[in-house]
């Protein structure tokens, strides 16, 4: 019988002072240790430091199917959310999604290479405004997302054993 794996998600897991990457190793979007995760790998572009961008190349299969032959809408949202979350590190901020909008423009195909791109738009205090797209390799936009991420305050982070990098 299997037991629930909660190791990375409890205060006790702070023993040994794991890094944030170690604690996020089971993230469904990018965690390398999640056997059922998407294992997305992003590269970030900070050429324009005030508008960092992130890009991942991916291809999905039957596990992620919604309509026959196409990616499930919830997975589409997950991809966009994950891509936008990757903008927080180059901005030196720990933040979570507060609000997200998704435009499902075209069905997103399974079994074909896709490009996931995000870019930081602007900041208003603790609110970070990000955008993301899922594109074909030819540049056709299949889905588009916009989100508000909230920079976490000290009290929330302290409970998880972290401080903001920019504090
Ligand atoms: C250890 C960590 C590692 C961090 C590691 C992060 C891993 C990321 C993983 C991928 C990303 C995710 O899926 S993250 C997981 C999904 N997200 C979550 O679970 C977050 C759940 N929500 C929360 O916990 C809470 O809402 C907080 C902490 C984010 C904020 O709570 P709060 O302080 O009470 O504030 P709240 O009233 O909710 O509103 C925040 C601000 O957003 C504004 N706001 C709300 N909707 C909108 C909107 N449509 N457009 C503009 N602004 C909006 C409000 O007006 C307000 O502005 P103003 O009054 O400030 O002006």
Automatic annotation (TrEMBL):
Q: Which UniProt keywords apply?
A: Apoptosis, Cell membrane, Cell projection, Cytoplasm, Fatty acid metabolism, Hydrolase, Lipid metabolism, Membrane, Transit peptide
Give the GO terms filed under biological process for this record. fatty acid metabolic process
Q: Name one GO cellular component term.
A: cytoplasm
Q: Name all Thioesterase domain ranges.
A: 69-141
Which terms in the Gene Ontology molecular function aspect does this entry carry? thiolester hydrolase activity
Q: What is this protein called?
A: Acyl-coenzyme A thioesterase THEM4
Q: Which domain of life is it from?
A: Bacteria
Upper lineage: Bacteria, Pseudomonadati, Acidobacteriota, Terriglobia, Terriglobales
Q: Which EC number(s) does UniProt give?
A: 3.1.2.2
Q: Indicate how the chain sits in the lipid bilayer.
A: Peripheral membrane protein
**Is Cytoplasm a UniProt keyword of this protein?**
yes
What does the record give as the reaction this protein catalyses?
(9Z)-octadecenoyl-CoA + H2O = (9Z)-octadecenoate + CoA + H(+); octanoyl-CoA + H2O = octanoate + CoA + H(+); tetradecanoyl-CoA + H2O = tetradecanoate + CoA + H(+); (5Z,8Z,11Z,14Z)-eicosatetraenoyl-CoA + H2O = (5Z,8Z,11Z,14Z)-eicosatetraenoate + CoA + H(+)
Instruction: Reply yes or no: does the keyword Lipid metabolism apply.
Output: yes
Q: Which organism is it from?
A: Edaphobacter modestus
List where in the cell it is found. Answer: Cell projection, Ruffle membrane; Cytoplasm; Membrane
| InterPro entries xref list | HotDog_dom_sf (IPR029069), THEM4/THEM5_acyl-CoA_thioest (IPR052365), Thioestr_dom (IPR006683)
Family named by the database record: Belongs to the THEM4/THEM5 thioesterase family.
